[in-house]
Description:
mainly alpha, Helix Hairpins, 3 helices, 72% helix
Amino acid sequence: MKPSELRDKSDDELKTLEKELRDQLIKLSIARATQRMRNHSQLGKIKRDIARIKTIVRERELGQGVAAT
């Protein structure tokens, strides 16, 4: 998911999305442990999406918004 798409969402939507991604991550981890997982790259993608969400939430907490480049 792109950061611009995430920035358009409200705080509640981001929290809900993070919870859903964490649930998916747990399910994929179990599938990997039981050797039923076929696409291992999904784990990394979900972890990156969670990190993006946490970064955006933290930016909002600090009042930074989009960082100027």
